[in-house]
Design a protein that fits this description.
The chain is globular. The chain is about 60% helix and about 10% strand. The chain is mainly alpha-helical and about 160 residues long.
Length: about 160
């Protein structure tokens, strides 16, 4: 189902990602304020991670962060806005960088080159939430899984 979104030329993927970003912004703008839809920007970040360089992925992540912040229902202030925007940006950027590293690191592609930074940052990001990012090689492809442990919020501080 999603394979048609990711396939095609660089230009067609960027066009679809741009249209998707615009559609998410429009829906978020028109939707009820109590339902923030900023997480939906992760899908176009997956798309652009396949065709853009890291600095370009960061630019798209900044745009998505601005749109998510502008259209969410949360009041912006220094105490809540900056941490929220940092989390928005790091989520969007790490997802795009992860896809960039995976697609550029495939050993079966001619001239494949990558720094390994995307996988490292993605793993560090998942570990910061007490989880683990795992890799399982599959013939001609790769499979990654994210394992998160539930957090007991009822623990008493000693």
């Amino acid at each position: 189902m999603f394979s048609s979104l990711f396939g095609g030329t660089r230009g067609s993927v960027l066009l679809r990602a741009g249209l998707l970003i615009a559609a998410i912004a429009l829906i978020d703008w028109r939707a009820v304020d109590e339902v923030p839809l900023g997480f939906l920007y992760l899908l176009p970040m997956l798309m652009v991670g396949r065709v853009l360089r890291p600095w370009q992925i960061a630019t798209v992540a900044i745009i998505c962060t601005i749109l998510a912040e502008f259209f969410d229902a949360f009041e912006w202030n220094l105490r809540g806005g900056i941490p929220r925007d940092v989390l928005y940006f790091s989520s969007f950027f790490c997802v795009g960088l992860f896809v960039y590293e995976v697609t550029k690191s495939r050993p079966f592609q001619d001239g494949a080159h990558a720094t390994g930074l995307g996988l490292y940052l993605s793993r560090a990001f998942v570990r910061s939430f007490g989880g683990e990012l795992r890799y399982k090689p599959i013939f001609g492809s790769a499979c990654f899984s994210v394992e998160l442990s539930p957090v007991n919020t009822f623990e008493r501080a000693s």
